[in-house]
Amino acid sequence: MTVRSLKSLLVAVFSLFILLFSNVSLANDDQHGDHGNQPKKEKKGFDANEVIFGHVLDAHEFHFLDIPGEDGHKHPVTIPLPVILYSPQRGLDVFMSSKLEHGHAIYKGYKLIEGKIHAVNAEGAEDGSVKVYDLSMTRNVVQMLIALALLVFIMINIAKKYKKGIGTKQAPTGFQNAIEPLITFIRDDVGKPNLGHRYEKYMPYLLTVFFFILINNIFGLIPGTANVTGNIAFTAVLGLISFLVIVFSSNKHFWGHIFNPPGVPGFVKPILVLVEFLGIFIKPFALIIRLFANMVAGHIIIICLISLIFIFGGLNAAIGWGASPVAVGFTVFIYLIEVLVAFLQAYIFTSLTAVFIGMAIEEPHHHDGHDEGYDDAIMI
C-alpha cells in the first residue's frame, strides 16, 4: 500500500508540474502575440527544462549556483574541469572549461553549445567539416574517480586494521564499525544463499560493486554534484562486467538447460530455447535499466518539486511564497527516500548479480526423478 500511495503521489506531482509548465509557456506565447509589432526586450523567465537536464546530464564543470550581478547578468559559481579535445584537422587541444565561459565565448575555435563542445568557424557558426573527439574530464568522470579513490582508501585502511587484529582479536573501531555490518550482510544474505560454498570466490566482486554503487549514489545526493549512477553509460558498463562474470562462470549444466531444457515437450522446446537464450542478455540489461531509471527518476522528482516554487512565483509572487513550504516539505520527504533508495539499489544490483551467477554455476542434482536445479532456476 505504501509503494502504491507513493507512486500515486509521484504521478500527481508530475501531472501538476506538466500542467503548470504548459500554462506558463502558453501565457508567454500570448504576451508575444499581443506585442508582436512592438520590439521589446523580454526578461528570460525560469526554464525548468534547463534546470532539470542541466542536473541530470553530464557537464564540463561542477555548477553550484548563480549570483545575480549589478550588471543584471547571472554569475555562475562553478568548478571548471579540464577539456581534452582531439580533432584530425586541428590536432590536440587541452584547456580548462572556464575558457568557454559557459557557452558565451569561443576559445581555440571551439564553443560550448547545449552542453557539448563543437568546432566553429571564424563567424562563430558550427563547422561541420571539423570532426571533434571529446576526451574531457567531465564531472561524471571526475566524480567517479573520486568515488573510486574513496572506496580504495576506506577498504585499505579497514584491511590494515584487520591485519593488526582490530576487529578479530578486539572490537572494531572508528569507521570500521559502520563498514563491517555491511560486509557481513552482503556475505551472509547475498553471497552464501545464492552462491553456496563457492561464495568466497565472488565476494571481492560483489563487495566492490555494492560499495562502488553505494558511494556514487550517496555522492549524487550532495547538491552541485553529478548523478553518476543516473547515467546510462555508467550502469551499462557495470551491467556489461556482470554479464561477463556470469558468462565466464557458467558451466555445461547451465548451457545444457538453455539449449536442451529437460522435461519439456518437443514442440515447446524451440520457443523455450529462444526465451532462455534471450534471457542471458535480458538479465544484465535489466540490471542496467533498473539502476539507471531509479536513480535518475528520484533526482528529477526532487528538481520538479523545487521548480514548482519558481513556476508558481512566475504566475504570482504570493502564490510562489505560499507554495514554498509545501514544495520544500515534499522535497525533504523525497530526499530522505532517496537516501534509502541509494542503499536499496546498491543492494538490489549486487543481489541480482549474485542470483544470476548462482544460476550459472549451479551443479546438476536430481530429486525423485525430476531436475530440481532447473525448477529452482525457473522459480528465480
Number of β-strand runs: 9
The global form is globular
Helix content: 55-70%
Q: What class, by secondary structure content?
A: mainly alpha
Measured distance between first and last alpha carbons: 24 Å
Low-confidence sequence ranges: 9-41, 368-380
Strand order within the widest sheet? 4-3-7
- Estimate nothing, just give the exact number of structural domains: 2
| Percent of sequence in beta strands | 5-15%
**CA radius of gyration:** 26 Å
Give a quick account of the main beta sheet: strands, pairing sense, barrel closure. 3 strands, antiparallel
Task: Describe the 3D structure.
- It is a single chain.
- The chain is mainly alpha-helical.
- The protein folds into two domains: 73-137; 139-379, no CATH class.
- The protein contains ten helices and nine strands.
- The protein has helices at 2-34, 48-56, 139-163, 176-195, 199-219, 232-249, 252-259, 269-315, 317-361, 372-379; strands at residues 61-68, 74-80, 82-87, 91-96, 110-113, 116-119, 133-134, 366-367, 370-371.
- It has a three-stranded antiparallel β-sheet, with no helix packed on it. It has a two-stranded antiparallel ribbon with strand order 1-2.
- Strand 3 (82-87) and strand 4 form a beta hairpin.
- The two termini are 24 Å apart.
- The model is unreliable at 9-41 and 368-380 (pLDDT under 50).
Helix-strand blueprint:
Layout: H1 2-34, H2 48-56, E1 61-68, E2 74-80, E3 82-87, E4 91-96, E5 110-113, E6 116-119, E7 133-134, H3 139-163, H4 176-195, H5 199-219, H6 232-249, H7 252-259, H8 269-315, H9 317-361, E8 366-367, E9 370-371, H10 372-379
Antiparallel strand pairs: 1-2, 3-4, 3-7, 5-6, 8-9
